[in-house]
Design brief:
There is one protein chain. The protein is mainly alpha-helical. The protein has 6 helices and 2 strands, in the order H-H-H-E-E-H-H-H. Strand 1 and strand 2 form a beta hairpin.
Length: 131
Amino acid sequence: MKGLGELERTVMEVLWAREDAGLAAATARDVSRALAGDRDLAHTTVMTVLDRLAKKDFLQRERDGRAWRYRPVESREGYVAELMLGALNETGDRDAALAHFVKSVSRDEIDVIRQALADLTSRTPGKEPPA
């Protein structure tokens, strides 16, 4: 399970927020500007973190003139789901861990889980779910 360090997570949050807002892929300068109010980071540090995240396959990058543009490979929710699955794989008893997890969620979250399960079981085998 690949994880994120604190600074990597902060950079990913900037990129996920841009994606959520429907903005284009970001340059290192875009990320530096977004972080300027919260953190005093050198632009080269941001560039290094972005490069490291691309090498870890958290980001896709494409050339835009002399700069690179970065976008997340996966959504924030996809990343968190991957973390949850990684944690589940660490237990010797997946069923018990799942049962314990379900007992700890709120009523609203139970409704979300029920709806997701209903959506999964109502699909016709071999057909993609509607978008």
